[in-house]
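Suppose a colleague, Dr. K., hands you the sequence of a protein chain of 348 amino acids and asks what its three-dimensional shape might be. Before reaching for any lab equipment, you can write down a predicted structure in token form. Begin with the sequence itself:
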Amino acid sequence: MTSLATSPRVLVTDDSALMRRILSDGLLQHGLSVVGEASSGDEALGLCRDLRPDVVTLDLAMPGLDGVDVLRALRASHSPVPVVVVSSFSNSSRAVEALAEGAIELVAKPAPGESLFGFLSDLAAKLRIAAGSARSIVLPRKRAERSTAGARSVRRARPAATNPVTLIACSTGGPKALAEIMPRLPAALGGGGLIVQHMPAGFTRSLAERLDRTSALRVAEAAGGEAIDAKTFWLAPGGCHLRVTDQGTLRLSSEPPVGGLRPRADLTIKDAAQVYGDRLVLVVLTGMGRDGLEGAQEVRRCGGRVIAESESSCIVYGMPRAVIEDGLADVVVPLSEISAAIVEEAGL
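The predicted structure, expressed as tokens, is then:
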């Protein structure tokens, strides 16, 4: 696998020869090494075996095996490789399915008139992050098991709050983590919950529907005006900030992005901490950046609790790291134990 100090070796996969050339030339200009190009899903799988790339760009719509089929095959292989999906995303549910099947990130192909340079810069940055995540993809279970004793050593005990509200914040790798956590939660959980997942507008409804189908709890995209209840987790819609009013109802806000993010988890967390005080349980999962840090500080100030995913299972150890290194986490456990930690905080 690649070192963060070296140039990631990229396999470019797209059925369009023009797009393959745009991607290959652009990534080379941004300092990445393109080791091969594939025009179909079958060819991509063969080149993954032969070339052992550090990361793959993958279109979803291809002849033969499509992108989701390729992701499933890679996940079943003994040497899975990080994948960044690069597609037009005409079908949001298919894009969310790709994330659930293990894709690290989604990058939309540029529309006519949009900047190619901006698109390629964003893609190159996400490919570098994905390449650096390879250790978590290859060895999650054994590392998690070895880390458990150390992780639990930072656990701060307290009596369970009455009807706690759970707020989950996540970014890169979040859909996959949520797909593991939500089905393990009971049909009613304390005072209910909220989820803030960094995603563009148009994708979060499909994510909510997918989680809802596999969970005993109801999972739905918030539209504004809802009240939080024990049987529902409300997901912040992409393109909007999710705010919590003093009355405990939800409000959508079109305020400018904060740190390039809308939704911004910090805004939701701070609102919820001020409304629920020691009844709030914040869960910070895998993700790039430091969103959630300011919110966690407010949670602790208001007497709430903070659970953070440990490094051993994170796709990207950014958001949890910021919280843990600031000494704000009451509980630090790998992904496989997050659901149990949430249930324990609810006193169930």
